[in-house]
Design a protein that fits this description.
With about 325 residues, the chain is α/β, with parallel strands linked by helices. The chain is built from 14 helices and nine strands. The chain has two domains: about 10-215, Alpha-Beta Complex (Spore Coat Polysaccharide Biosynthesis Protein SpsA, Chain A); about 225-330, no CATH class. Strands 1, 2, 3, 4, 5, 6, 7, 8 and 9 form a nine-stranded mixed β-sheet that branches. Strand 6 and strand 7 (about 125) form a beta hairpin. The N and C termini lie far apart (about 55 Å).
């Protein structure tokens, strides 16, 4: 049963968001469950973002700050918010009209964080599976979350990755302040870091309905795989430093080491592709310390070969891959 007393502050970080911000704001103001306030945090934009917000005639609180990144912008909004709950929407994403109402309904499970599934929007068209389908959760949610509450959100984050979309999540403000907000040392993957910290001590509830559209376009940070990998490795390293006293058991440590090693191996391979041999060796050495594998040993040894040999090996691998692809196409 919905609590009519639940007040929600919507925080929208915006950086040069003029192309999409109006559509995002319209989707918030069209909610069947109206928020207490809508806060746009302009993170140093030099486009028409201020003018777009001004067109909403006092329906939106506008905060402008110097460029600090998404984590810092979201924290600015959280500190200024007055609602019991904080809901986040990125300036290029869109909510369906029933999103807030559904999340508030599910918040009655005494959860501290509530989120729903999302759809992907490319050039105005819905493309591919939903986020939950992409992470293998759609058909498992009844088992993973009886009555909507996740049994072990911490281990699930480590198992499948960041299944909680920042554009479709609602968190209790007091819990946010207790946990320490987003880590502003992160320029990306700051949401994964926060969800992991919250999941160790707080209840997560999931809604198996796709109620938001996440827009994919050329300026999404997630397009830069190298930046994402570096950010995720940083998340795991922080988790290893600060969470042993909080997280029970040892299985999660093994999972983190294995996943971190695979990411460091991939980062090293990308360095080698760019001819940055010393950085490749450094990345693979860190991977060795995290989790040993024969494949990694082969990568590391390859970094000590003469550059001409390394290039010949890369060309050979490319030809093998191309041949395999051609065979698949013919069959």
């Amino acid at each position: 049963m919905r609590s009519e007393k639940a007040t929600v502050s919507v925080v929208i970080p915006a950086y040069n968001a003029g192309a999409f911000l109006g559509e995002a704001l319209d989707s918030v103001l069209s909610q069947t469950y109206q928020p207490l306030e809508v806060i746009v945090v302009d993170d140093g934009s030099d486009d028409e973002t201020p003018q777009i917000v001004a067109d909403y005639n006092g329906k939106v609180t506008y905060l402008r700050r110097s460029r600090g990144g998404p984590a810092s912008a979201r924290n600015t909004g959280v500190r200024a918010a007055k609602g019991d709950w904080i809901a986040f929407l990125d300036a290029d994403d869109i909510w369906m009209p029933g999103l807030l109402g559904k999340l508030v309904d599910v918040a009655g499970t005494a959860a501290d964080l509530v989120f729903c599934d999302t759809l992907t929007l490319i050039s105005g068209k819905v493309v591919g599976p939903t986020r939950f389908e992409n992470y293998g959760l759609k058909n498992r949610l009844d088992t993973l979350a009886p009555d909507g509450v996740l049994l072990n959100p911490f281990e699930l984050l480590l198992e499948v990755g960041c299944y909680i979309p920042a554009c479709a999540v609602m968190v209790r403000r007091d819990v946010f302040l207790q946990i320490g907000l987003f880590d502003e040392d992160f320029y990306c993957n700051e949401d994964m870091d926060l969800w992991l910290r919250l999941s160790l001590r707080h209840r997560f509830a999931a809604v198996n309905d796709a109620l938001a559209f996440r827009r994919i376009h050329a300026r999404n940070m997630s397009h830069d795989t190298s930046v994402w990998l570096t950010g995720q490795i940083k998340v795991y390293e922080k988790l290893e430093r600060y969470s042993p006293a909080l997280a029970t058991g040892t299985r999660w440590r093994k999972v983190v080491r294995k996943q971190k090693a695979a990411m460091l191996r991939e980062v090293g391979a990308r360095y080698l592709e760019r001819g940055q041999v010393l950085l490749a060796r450094e990345s693979w050495a860190k991977s060795f310390r995290s989790s040993y594998s024969l494949r990694l040993a082969a990568y590391w040894l390859a970094a000590f070969l003469p550059q001409s040999w390394t290039e010949a090996l890369r060309n050979w691998k490319r030809r093998i891959r191309a041949t395999a692809v051609c065979r698949e196409v013919r069959t």
